């Protein structure tokens, strides 16, 4: 490959014969690098980041980014779908079961095995469950050093396993573990990683993994591929993929692997875990979340939210302003700066629905909004909305539900 | 103690609105800002320096030439030195190419004790560059740090936020931390800081300056590729009750009951 920069210009260009100057690229550019001048579309190369948004949005195919293809990986050597099966304190996390559900579908489309990679200590029992949840086999790394998540030994172990077994796809939950681990692992493997996906599929023609995720605070969705390196790595949002029911008749091999002390070595030490007792139900695992915002008026009024959450057996969430005000701890915050959730049911009460908040809950299955302002943006994304005084509506709703829900 | 803070200039996504008529982004008047999480990283670095009595805080960023403004902003907060990685060949970098580029720049700055990054940037929201950079440099990483309990020249002990509480982790230095907004309240630039920022020369480094391999940077060093972008689906069939609230509550209660039964 050419070691000199090709020229002083970026490898992006407009094909003028195709361009109709419709201006859609100008509106789409996230950094404002495109403008129209003298009936020509111009790209300001000091601003352009080659993000590719304009290329994909142009209906005429008039914008091209030239990329030199590198082929360092023999793609045909890689086969199989892997799910990193995150465990905490010896129990596999629900997100791993969700990924096995999706992984099963991908593996069937590719006609290959679905493997669960399980790292921990004294967790052989959990391995059986992974088979029952859809895995064909489990690779088990059972070592005292792996009892709690530590980035270095976890990344080292997975790197060694991937180099040995060559899976074509490897998935993890988009959790505080998955994101931290895969960010490091992708670098070790020199391959591509797509964060916080909400959609995964296999391209019918070239069998590549098609990854869809929100970007720019959920304002746009992007479809991303990893064409030339393997494995194709992705972290996946909780609660978006559907898990399969336990199938006790499923059988599969549990493959135990051993590792050298060097690989298991870690400089950072886990001292202890401190549980957050203010959160009765874990937000990211909750099927139902009831969230309160500034409309509540004061911290005491969160009890209205809590009562409804109790009746529905749901978790309590909150918008950023009320967390910033100190009405409720940060661990309850839903949104771009807090947690991204996708429960079966999300109820937003007294929350207007800033772009940041919507980014954190928009992939919920059913959204209910209660707000006195009929123009609140949250009503644009809800399935059910009640425009009214929350102090009247919510207690009434709670009462009615209490009568009909066990 | 020498602390390096990595920052990114981002479009202010809080200012980006969706036009409900056309379902496209309204970017008019959207400014470039320092990624908000990175301001918490800068604040924590400055606090550590102040508490230890001596030391140096260096900010680095990769981006187009106007990223200098972002670096000047953190200089005005009290950062001692800043470097900008800016050259055409860096453009189009995904998280792998970015973490490699930053690692090469950091290696060229000589020895360091601590690297602090924001937990993620608000434009891409990947949270991958911090862990990737730690991997490139082969140093320990602790992500989602909500509090530094103790730090000296040899080690750091922190609280790391998780989904159900927090962990206490200790690691020898050098190490890389990514921080969440819970950790501190970033200071505002001072007048004196602004004067310094106005005068300071920010060195601009190219791939040659940091000895980076051209195959590992920018577009050619980026294994991921965006093939399509589209607007998120907007739910069209919302049922909004605004007149008869009591009737609305009845209907919603009925719908919720069915959802709850389905979940159970």
Plain-language structure description:
The complex is a heterodimer of chains A (406) and B (264). Chain A is an alpha/beta fold. Chain A contains twelve helices and 22 strands. Mean pLDDT of chain A is 91; it is low at 1-7. With 264 residues, chain B is of the alpha/beta class. Chain B has helices spanning 36-52, 68-77, 95-108, 129-137, 191-199, 207-210, 245-263; strands at 2-7, 9-11, 17-19, 24-26, 32-34, 56-62, 81-85, 114-118, 141-151, 155-162, 165-172, 175-179, 204-205, 225-230, 239-241. The longest helix of chain B has 19 residues, at 245-263. The relative contact order of chain B is 0.17. At the A-B interface, α2, α5, α6, β11 and β14 of A face α3, α4, β9, β10 and β11 of B. β17 of chain A pairs antiparallel with β11 of chain B, so a sheet runs across the interface.
Instruction: Please tell me how large the radius of gyration of chain A is.
Output: 24 Å
Determine the strand fraction of chain A and express it as a percent band: 25-35%
* Helix/sheet category of chain B: alpha/beta
String of helices and strands of chain B: EEEEEHEHEHEHEEEEHEHEEH
Mean pLDDT of chain A: 91
The CATH architecture term of the largest domain in chain A is: 3-Layer(aba) Sandwich
CATH class label of the largest domain in chain A? Alpha Beta
Give the name of the CATH superfamily of the largest domain in chain A: HUPs
Main sheet: strands, sense, barrel of chain A: 7 strands, parallel
The CATH topology of chain B corresponds to Rossmann fold
Mean pLDDT of chain B: 91
> Widest sheet of chain A: strand order?
11-15-10-5-8-9-16
Largest sheet of chain B: 9 strands, mixed
- Discrete helix count of chain B: 7
Oligomeric organization of the protein chains: heterodimer
């Amino acid at each position: 490959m050419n070691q000199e920069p090709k020229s002083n210009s970026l490898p992006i260009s407009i094909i003028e014969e195709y361009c109709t100057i419709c201006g859609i690229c100008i509106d789409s550019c996230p950094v404002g690098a495109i403008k129209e001048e003298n009936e020509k579309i111009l790209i300001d190369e000091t601003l352009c980041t080659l993000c590719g948004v304009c290329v994909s949005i142009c209906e005429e195919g008039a914008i091209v980014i030239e990329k030199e293809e590198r082929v360092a990986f023999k793609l045909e050597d890689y086969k199989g779908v892997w799910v990193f099966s995150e465990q905490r304190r010896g129990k596999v996390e629900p997100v791993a079961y969700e990924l096995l559900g999706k992984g099963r579908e991908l593996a069937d489309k590719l006609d290959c095995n679905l493997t669960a990679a399980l790292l921990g200590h004294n967790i052989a029992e959990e391995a059986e469950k992974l088979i029952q949840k859809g895995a064909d086999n489990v690779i088990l790394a059972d070592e005292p050093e792996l009892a709690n998540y530590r980035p270095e030994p976890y990344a080292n172990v997975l790197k060694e396993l991937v180099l040995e077994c060559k899976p074509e796809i490897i998935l993890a939950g988009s959790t505080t573990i998955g994101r931290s681990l895969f960010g490091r692992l992708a670098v070790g493997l020199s391959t591509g990683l797509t964060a916080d996906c909400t959609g995964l599929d296999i391209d019918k023609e070239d069998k590549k993994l098609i990854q869809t995720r929100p970007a720019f605070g959920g304002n746009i969705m992007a479809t991303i591929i990893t064409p030339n390196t393997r494995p194709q790595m992705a972290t996946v949002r909780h609660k978006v993929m559907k898990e399969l029911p336990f199938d006790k008749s499923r059988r599969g091999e549990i493959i135990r692997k051993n590792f050298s002390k060097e690989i298991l070595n870690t400089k950072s030490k886990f001292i202890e875990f401190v549980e957050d007792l203010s959160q009765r139900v874990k937000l990211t695992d909750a099927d139902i979340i009831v969230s309160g915002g500034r409309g509540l008026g004061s911290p005491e009024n969160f009890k209205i939210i809590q009562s409804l959450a109790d009746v529905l057996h749901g978790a309590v969430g909150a918008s950023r302003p009320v967390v910033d005000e100190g009405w409720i701890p940060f661990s309850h915050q839903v949104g771009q700066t807090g947690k991204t959730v996708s429960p079966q049911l999300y109820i937003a009460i007294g929350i207007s629905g800033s772009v940041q908040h919507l980014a954190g809950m928009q992939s919920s299955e059913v959204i209910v909004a209660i707000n006195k302002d009929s123009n609140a943006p949250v009503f644009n994304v809800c399935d059910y909305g009640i425009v009214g005084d929350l102090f009247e509506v919510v207690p009434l709703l709670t009462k009615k539900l209490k009568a009909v829900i066990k | 103690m020498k602390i390096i803070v990595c920052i990114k200039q981002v479009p202010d996504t809080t200012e980006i609105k969706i036009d409900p008529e056309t379902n496209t982004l309204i970017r008019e008047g959207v400014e470039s800002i320092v990624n908000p999480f990175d301001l918490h990283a800068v604040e924590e670095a400055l606090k550590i320096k102040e508490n230890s009595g001596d030391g140096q805080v260096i900010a680095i960023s990769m981006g187009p030439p106007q990223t200098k403004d972002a670096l000047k902003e953190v200089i005005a907060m009290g950062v001692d030195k800043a470097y900008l990685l800016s050259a055409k060949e860096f453009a189009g970098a995904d998280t792998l190419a970015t973490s490699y580029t930053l690692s090469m720049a950091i290696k060229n700055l000589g020895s360091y004790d601590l690297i602090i990054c924001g937990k993620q940037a608000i434009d891409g929201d990947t949270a991958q560059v911090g862990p990737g950079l730690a991997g490139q440099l082969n140093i320990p990483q602790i992500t989602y740090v909500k509090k530094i309990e103790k730090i000296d020249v040899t080690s750091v002990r922190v609280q790391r936020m998780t989904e159900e509480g927090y962990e206490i982790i200790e690691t020898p230095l050098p190490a890389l931390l990514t921080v969440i907004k819970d950790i501190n309240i970033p200071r505002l630039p001072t007048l004196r800081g602004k004067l310094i920022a106005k005068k300071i020369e920010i060195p601009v480094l190219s791939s040659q300056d940091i000895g980076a391999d051209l195959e590992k940077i920018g577009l050619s060093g980026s294994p991921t590729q965006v093939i399509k972008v589209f607007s998120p689906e907007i739910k069209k069939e919302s049922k909004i009750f605004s007149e008869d609230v009591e009737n609305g509550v009845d209907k919603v209660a009925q719908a919720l009951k069915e959802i709850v039964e389905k979940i159970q």
